[in-house]
Write a structure and sequence with these properties.
Structural class: alpha/beta
CATH class of the largest domain: Mainly Beta
Shape: elongated
Protein name: Tat pathway signal sequence domain protein
Low-confidence stretches: 17-28
CATH architecture of the largest domain: Sandwich
Organism: Stella humosa
Mean pLDDT: 85
Number of strands: 8
Distance between the termini: 61 Å
Length: 145
């Protein structure tokens, strides 16, 4: 191998390594992030209204300044009873919390499920926050996504 071809080969190798390092450096911090657990923990009657308790557990190392859910509430017949935007942020990193909200004019026994239709906002463009969430329920009314 001549001196010139050796430098060319070394240059290609270093160029390839630099490209690989640049690709790794551009991967967002949240790419391998732990999930955000969202649990419908409890429903309670409040007169003619139903009060819902969500337990949110951000297991990741990245905080969310905003986390706004698009929720669709279904009645026992499977008919959409209500749609609402619920802001459950901010969420600190590696922190569990509870958010409470009322469903005015809807009785808890009339509900069958709540769908997390989308995450309207989660503070970072390009992040798929629906995929990041894991949902569960403790009672008869199911939380799904």
């Amino acid at each position: 191998m001549t001196g010139r071809s050796m430098f060319t080969a070394a240059g290609r190798l270093l160029g390839g390594l630099a490209t690989g390092v640049a690709l790794v450096a551009t991967v967002p911090a949240w790419a391998d992030e732990a999930p955000v657990l969202v649990e419908l923990n409890r429903l309670e009657e409040r007169g003619a209204d139903c009060r819902a308790y969500l337990v949110l557990d951000n297991r990741g190392k990245v905080a969310f300044e905003a986390f706004k859910l698009d929720l669709v509430i279904f009645d026992k017949g499977g008919v959409i009873a209500r749609r609402l935007a619920l802001d459950v942020g901010p969420m600190r990193a590696e922190k569990k919390g509870v958010k409470v909200f009322d469903l005015a004019g809807l009785g808890c026994p009339d509900l069958s499920s709540i769908l997390v239709n989308d995450v309207i906002e989660c503070g970072d463009k390009g992040r798929d926050c629906v995929a990041l969430m894991e949902v569960s329920s403790r009672g008869a009314v199911k939380l799904t996504k």
